[in-house]
């Protein structure tokens, strides 16, 4: 199978921002997913460099339009590798090959009788670079740019778009997945229920010179949209290139809702006039706002992807954007939201699963993938993976990335519970259970192999680290092809694990939390209080203690202390508790456990770490030595349940 996926070509009047990054991450993730499924893929992006807007921006900087375009286009080209985005082709509308093809197509459409000369007057929005209809205005203003359009009367060339209106309606009706999600398909059909006007496709040189000259009239340049849309053909060598034969029939375009009309109406009708088949699918996503406000230069809240990579890492940025936005709807970006996802989904869930599993393999099997004991086999992880794979594939194929990731995270949470239920640390103490121990550890390793596979399109870097951590090459054949490697049990036993690297270190929230009083400052002891003799406490007094069930989501040793562990727990809000149980429990056996905590202890600092609460443990004496034992709580209790 073959796949051809494109992004819009971005105007060079602005530098790359989160919106451009999102569309391009989507196209990259999809192209990696189709490669994983065995397709030959071509992925194209690029820059749109002609037209009013660019000429004006260059004028403001007092440079020639081409020199200006060279500079900004290079910024886009250099940004993509920072985001692990790997297009096969980067096209520019100033490429001579593109210019020649646009002229060829204009001549073809002209010869076809679909271009005519006429006098026109209309309402022109410079921001949109198109004429708007009265109906599109809101309170007399362009709804996107909030400015009144200019009344312009001039002679121009027109494309007979109206001729193809019925054919286009039929095509959309006959091909339900031509435009998706459905809300955009409906929007286009509703627009097409009114008579379609022809499209003005030229600008007189007296008004604009920065464009491609019409082949049949040197007094005019081509309207920027007629020029730009053709990039999807020139990039694959239309009309005679081998790539054009190979890829055109499977073309898929990703765009945001702002440019739906040019892609869903102008472009298909242009293709009809050229006698070419239409692209296969158009995927339309919503807009990123920032802290619930429209992203704009004038507000000064434009988010730059390179900065996000520096602050959070490329995998976190890719994961966050794909997980947070429901494809088709708007989403809001905030730095707190990205940190919250990094800590919970990445550091706690997948990060812990990986580090605990690898640590146990290092500890209990000397860093080798063990041979599973088939007589001790159990299939719950295998089942979880096998249920997830088709849901994941279907969601990735239909651009519902958030759903694909939800399905993957269900497996991750299942696997974390699998560790808690099977207690490999207990199995390791009993020589009679070695078969079972090996099976549990093998299952975890194979589950991680498959997780690394499905996460490859989303987070190529982290997925490679995971594969490496299992002793596999990042592009090992075991993770190369989706249908085959979807099979369970392909990880060969005996493989040696290299020392593991942590996948996702946790991040502190950026805004300082409300300052909490610190009872015991580091190194100092609080003044000892004389306890009054009491004969018992009342129920009201007992009720002042906020006892709760807490889930341990992360655990690590406190440096330079054998006794202290730093626990991240959910009560259900997330907090840190430093507990003195390090000599009795290892961090990996704690994650996923439900424990009892005093949630309203006065905050304290232990070894410099703020601790908000106290974990309850029973003090047992075994062979004359004190042993701390955590009380066990089972389901249906969950994080946050009050204990009374
Ligand atoms: N040059 C035209 C496209 C021609 S394609 C033949 C253009 N360029 S643009 O630079 O304005 O890019 C628009 C695209 O950038 C949107 O369709 C979307 O892909 C992306 N985004 C720009 N801002 C965005 C958000 N705030 N949110 C999400 N994506 C947005 O239009």
Overview of the structural elements:
The protein has 21 helices and 25 strands. Helix 11 (305-312) packs across helix 12, helix 14 (380-397) runs antiparallel to helix 15 and helix 15 runs antiparallel to helix 17 (434-455). With 644 residues, it is α/β, with parallel strands linked by helices. The strands form seven sheets. It has a six-stranded parallel β-sheet, with helices on both faces. Bound molecules: 5'-O-[(L-methionyl)-sulphamoyl]adenosine. 5'-O-[(L-methionyl)-sulphamoyl]adenosine binds next to strand 1, helix 1, helix 7 and strand 12.
Query: Do you know the CATH architecture of the largest domain?
Result: 3-Layer(aba) Sandwich
Cofactors, ions, other ligands: 5'-O-[(L-methionyl)-sulphamoyl]adenosine
CA-based shape = elongated
Average of per-residue pLDDT values: 91
The CATH topology label of the largest domain is Rossmann fold
CATH class of the largest domain: Alpha Beta
CATH superfamily of the largest domain: HUPs
Rg over C-alpha atoms, rounded to the nearest angstrom: 30 Å
Strand content: 15-25%
> What is the strand tally?
25
Features:
644 residues, alpha/beta, Rossmann fold, Isoleucyl-tRNA Synthetase, Domain 1, OB fold (Dihydrolipoamide Acetyltransferase, E2P), 3 domains, six-stranded parallel sheet, five-stranded antiparallel sheet, 21 helices, 39% helix, elongated, binds 5'-O-[(L-methionyl)-sulphamoyl]adenosine
Question: Quick summary of this structure?
Answer:
Helix content is 39%, strand content 20%.
What's the layout of helices and strands?
Elements: E1 2-11, H1 18-36, E2 40-48, H2 52-61, H3 65-82, E3 89-92, H4 96-111, E4 115-125, E5 130-132, E6 150-159, H5 165-174, E7 179-180, H6 182-192, E8 199-200, E9 202-204, E10 213-214, E11 217-222, H7 224-229, H8 231-234, H9 242-247, E12 251-256, H10 260-274, E13 281-285, E14 288-290, E15 293-294, H11 305-312, H12 314-324, E16 331-333, H13 335-364, H14 380-397, H15 401-422, H16 424-427, H17 434-455, H18 460-469, H19 482-485, H20 539-543, E17 547-557, E18 565-570, E19 574-579, H21 587-590, E20 594-598, E21 604-606, E22 609-611, E23 614-615, E24 618-622, E25 625-629
Helix pairs in contact: 2-3, 11-12, 13-15, 13-17, 14-15, 14-17, 15-17, 17-18
Bound molecules: 5'-O-[(L-methionyl)-sulphamoyl]adenosine.
């Amino acid at each position: 199978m073959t796949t051809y996926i494109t992004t819009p070509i971005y105007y060079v009047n602005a530098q790359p921002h989160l919106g451009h990054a999102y569309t391009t991450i989507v196209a990259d993730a999809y192209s990696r997913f189709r490669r994983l499924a065995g397709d030959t893929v071509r992925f194209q992006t690029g820059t749109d460099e002609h037209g009013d807007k660019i000429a004006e921006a260059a004028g403001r900087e007092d440079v020639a339009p081409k020199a200006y375009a060279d500079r900004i286009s290079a910024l886009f080209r250099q940004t993509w590798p920072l985001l692990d985005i790997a297009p096969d082709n980067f096209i520019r509308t100033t490429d001579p090959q593109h210019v020649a093809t646009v002229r060829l197509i204009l001549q073809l459409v002209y010869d076809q009788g679909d271009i005519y000369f006429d006098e026109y007057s209309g309402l022109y929005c410079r921001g949109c670079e198109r004429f708007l209809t009265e109906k599109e205005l809101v309170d007399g203003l362009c709804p996107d740019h909030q400015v009144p359009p200019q009344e312009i009367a001039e002679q121009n060339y027109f494309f007979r778009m109206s001729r193809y209106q019925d054919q286009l309606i039929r095509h959309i009706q006959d091909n339900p997945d031509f435009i998706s999600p459905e809300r955009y398909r409906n929007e286009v059909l509703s627009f097409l229920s009114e008579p379609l006007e022809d499209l003005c496709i030229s600008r007189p040189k007296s008004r604009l010179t920065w464009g491609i000259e019409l082949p049949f009239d040197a007094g005019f340049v081509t309207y920027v949209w007629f020029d730009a849309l053709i990039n999807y053909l020139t990039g694959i060598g239309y009309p005679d290139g081998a790539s054009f034969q190979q890829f055109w029939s499977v073309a898929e375009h990703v765009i945001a809702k702002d440019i739906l009309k040019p892609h869903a109406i102008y472009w298909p009708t242009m293709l009809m006039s050229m006698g070419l088949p239409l692209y296969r699918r158009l995927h339309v996503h919503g807009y990123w706002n920032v802290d619930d406000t429209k992203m704009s230069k004038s507000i000064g809240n434009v988010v730059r992807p390179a900065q996000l990579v520096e602050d959070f890492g490329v995998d976190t940025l890719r994961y966050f954007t794909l997980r947070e936005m429901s494809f088709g709807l708007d989403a809001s970006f905030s730095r707190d939201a990205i940190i919250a996802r990094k800590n919970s989904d990445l550091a706690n869930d997948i990060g812990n699963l990986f580090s605990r599993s690898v640590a146990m393999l290092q500890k209990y099997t000397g860093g080798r993938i063990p041979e599973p004991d088939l007589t001790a086999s159990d299939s719950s992880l295998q089942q979880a993976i096998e249920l997830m794979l088709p849901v994941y594939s279907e969601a990735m194929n239909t651009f519902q990335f958030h759903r694909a990731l939800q399905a993957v995270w269900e497996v991750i949470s299942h696997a974390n519970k699998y560790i808690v239920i099977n207690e490999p640390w207990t199995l390791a103490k009993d020589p009679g259970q070695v078969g079972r121990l090996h099976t549990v550890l093998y299952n975890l390793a194979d589950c991680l192999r498959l997780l690394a596979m499905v996460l490859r399109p989303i987070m190529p870097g982290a997925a490679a680290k995971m594969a490496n951590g299992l002793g596999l090459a990042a592009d090992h054949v075991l993770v190369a092809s989706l249908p085959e490697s979807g099979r369970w049990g392909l990880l060969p036993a005996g493989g040696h694990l290299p020392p593991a690297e942590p996948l996702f270190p946790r991040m502190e929230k950026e805004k300082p939390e409300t300052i909490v009083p610190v009872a015991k400052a580091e190194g100092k002891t609080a003044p000892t209080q004389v306890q009054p003799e009491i004969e018992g406490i009342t129920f009201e007094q007992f009720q002042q203690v906020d006892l709760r069930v807490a889930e341990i989501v992360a655990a690590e040793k406190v440096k330079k202390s054998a006794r202290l562990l730093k626990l991240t727990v959910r009560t259900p809000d997330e907090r840190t508790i430093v507990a003195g149980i390090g000599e009795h429990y290892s961090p990996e056996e704690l994650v996923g456990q439900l424990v009892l905590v005093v949630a309203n202890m006065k905050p304290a600092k232990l070894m410099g770490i703020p601790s908000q609460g106290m974990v309850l443990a029973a003090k047992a004496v075994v062979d004359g030595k004190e042993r701390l034992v955590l009380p066990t709580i089972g389901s249906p209790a969950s994080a946050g349940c009050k204990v009374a």
